[in-house]
Specification:
With about 220 residues, the chain is mainly α. It has nine helices and seven strands; from the N terminus they run αααββααααββββααβ. A hairpin with a 2-residue loop joins β3 and β4.
Length: about 220
């Protein structure tokens, strides 16, 4: 990140992602259906501290790992009796941003849960597996060539600490899965579907790589 981008991220009055955080705060407090329940009916903002830092996590009901956005949708369906929000929708990104913002500055802390081991291993395999017509893996760019350049852009280490993130390229906020789909398209591979287990597994591995790094949500990137 250039110094100007870092400064934009650190200043809440300049960070465009804070607009989604404020929308998320409104949605958090507003009943979503005739059940007259809102997120705030069950949870205080302070109870969300550290939550984003430990997702994806294993879900005891679904018996598989879920991302933070999937957990938000699951909670809304169960307690507010509403349909799930669409992936990349304004409302889901806003709620996820608001929850993630409560963990800003806290270290990424992947759960010490042995039930996640096989999924993490799958995620690591996906990270190192070549794909697409360009026959490249995530690791080839973001491990072997981190700090180098791809065209005019510097190659980052691909740590997921700022998501949902405002990308200047998008002029909008987006999820980690949107960014991963961009990467897959860039190597001319068929992107995984939003919410797929393949993406959840990959996010689990990325969380392990970023362990101990501070949560920055909402981040700002080029």
């Amino acid at each position: 990140m250039a110094a100007s981008t870092q400064a934009m991220q650190k200043d809440d009055t300049l960070n465009p992602g804070m607009l989604w955080v404020k929308d998320g705060e409104t949605l958090w407090q507003t009943p979503a259906s005739q059940s007259q329940k809102s997120c705030a009916s069950c949870h205080t903002p302070s109870s969300m501290k550290g939550v984003a830092a430990r997702y994806p996590a294993f879900d005891d009901q679904l018996l598989r790992p879920v991302t933070l956005s999937q957990r938000i949708n699951q909670c809304r369906q169960k307690h507010q009796q509403v349909e799930p929000l669409r992936f990349e929708s304004q409302d889901l990104l806003s709620l996820e941003s608001y929850v993630a913002h409560q963990s800003r500055g806290m270290p990424v802390a992947p759960p010490d849960d042995t039930r996640l081991d096989s999924y993490r291993q799958q995620g690591q395999q996906r990270y190192t597996q070549r794909m697409g017509q360009l026959n490249l893996s995530c690791a080839q760019c973001h491990d072997s060539n981190a700090g180098g350049r791809l065209g005019s852009s510097q190659i980052p280490q691909a740590h997921p600490t700022g998501y949902p993130v405002y990308r200047l390229e998008w002029q909008a906020l987006g999820s980690l899965q949107r960014r991963l789909r961009n990467c897959m398209t860039g190597v001319r591979a068929e992107p995984f579907a939003y919410g797929s287990q393949a993406f959840v597994e990959l996010e689990l591995h990325l969380a392990v790589r970023a362990k101990g790094m501070p949560v920055e949500a909402p981040g700002v990137r080029p």
